[in-house]
Amino acid sequence: MTPHLPNYLTTGYHARMKDNTPNNSQSSSMRSLPSVDALLNQPAIASLLDEFPRPELVRSIRAVLDERRDALRAGETPALDVPALALNIRHKLYQRTQPNLRRVINATGIVMHTNLGRAPLAAEAIEAINDVAAGYCNLELDLPTGRRGSRHDHLRELLRELTGAEDALVVNNNAAGTYLTLNALAAGRPVIVSRGQLVEIGGSYRMPDIMAAARCKMVEVGTTNRTHIADYELAIDEETAVLLRVHTSNYRIYGFATSPALEELVALARKYPRQSIAVVDDLGSGLLDTAAPTASGAEEVTDETAPAVCDADWDEPTVRHSVGAGADLTLFSGDKLLGGPQAGVIVGRSELITQLRKNPLARTFRPDKLTLAGLEATLRLYRDPDALVRRLPVRRMLGASLEHLEAQANRLTQQIAELIPEVDVVTAADESFAGGGTLPALPFATRVTCVRHPHFEPGRIAAALRARDLPIICRIRDEALIFDCRTLLSEEIDQIPTALAETLREMNSE
């Protein structure tokens, strides 16, 4: 027996039931939807089998039919004719062939844009990766003896040469290097660190959390803005394992602020020889050394590569200084200012590097053959420092002269103006940044192309540019699209006007 319900409940119940019941028009449209087999027999759709496997075609047909049913249930009136369905099926098939991870054009001016993969690689690194990826390699084979070797040997001598350190170890990123170091040297023991260096960077990476995960005991000293060497000394006890210095790579504290120099931390640690306190310098950014181009290389530097701001002016600690100052271990990234693939590099005393290699966690952080090949090719470029501004994309972009950037921006502005007369387009002065958590307080003067459309909002245009087969990523400011030429290759400048024109035509036709 159906229970008796009050009128106000039954009325609402029947009303909802009525709302969910398809009307005659919807039912008729549902019945008019062709079956999968019927569509497969249509020439316009059957011809797709020449390009795509049958299972993929069937999957796409079903997906399009499901979308049509959902639209009909929602009260919409989607196109149900075969040509429209065939077009949607082809589009669905094409979408499934596109990789999720693909190349984009970076017009943001942020050179080491973390969201865009940070450092673009040098041609030499790309060639080395392709060569190793195309076949087998001696990743863990000692060629002279024919016996098993170690992947850690491939970059050891090169890193020793470039940094002045006794030994080196490469892992898959700098966060892994920090974790491995703290776990291997200080598990269960105190690590002293300045409160002003307990950094948080992108992706919820927080130094206190890393230290806790590595099972060491964090001992904070000093204050946010001022820490003295005496603060460290007062915190040292018989269990202290590490004095940790962390470079605040993505922010700076100015004004009434101080922190001990690395040399002071080293001198303090050496006062306790029985405890073997290690000084660990977590640099992050990966600047090996600073040196302006010498006269011997001046004739090879063009307007395109002449440094506007040389690395000697950069507010970044260097690896060579850290090693020379006596840090027991120095940690840095491979894909930031170093300009290579994602990697973490640890250099320093041989006995400590050996201790890290023997840690069971070392295997979980080891790099693959492609990373090692790209990093080695990148590091070899540093044997000729004067050529870095030409051969390493990060250095070329950061060192581009204002004259070159203005010429490139004027070229882009002119091409857009000629191809899309309805937009307002001008060249303007602006600022670029290094990105990647480096040089946060150092803007780089640049020139940009600003585009304003009389009808379309810039956010809508920017979204359409990101949806292209080769996505274009730009900035938006003051109701304008901003294309910064610092991060654009010459051929990309020529691609943007056509891509923008096609995008606007498609938007006008919607």
Fold and architecture overview:
This protein is an alpha/beta fold and about 500 residues long. The chain has three domains: about 25-95, no CATH class; about 105-110 and about 400-510, Aspartate Aminotransferase, domain 1, CATH 3.90.1150; about 125-390, 3-Layer(aba) Sandwich (Aspartate Aminotransferase, domain 2), CATH 3.40.640.10. Helix content is about 40%, strand content about 15%. It has helices at about 5-20, 25-30, 35-40, 45, 55-75, 80-95, 125-135, 155-165, 175-185, 205-215, 230-235, 260-270, 320-325, 350-360, 370-380, 390, 395-400, 400-420, 460-465, 490-510, and strands spanning about 105, 140, 145-150, 165-170, 190-195, 200, 205, 215-220, 240-245, 280-285, 330-335, 345-350, 425-430, 445-450, 470-475, 475, 480-485. The strands form five sheets. The chain has a seven-stranded mixed β-sheet with strand order 4-12-11-10-9-5-8, with helices on both faces. A hairpin with a 3-residue loop joins strand 6 (about 200) and strand 7 (about 205). Helix 5 crosses helix 6 (about 80-95) and helix 7 (about 125-135) packs antiparallel against helix 15 (about 370-380). The protein is globular and about 90 Å long. The protein starts with 6 loop residues before the first helix and ends with a helix. The model is unreliable at about 1-20 and about 290-305 (pLDDT under 50).
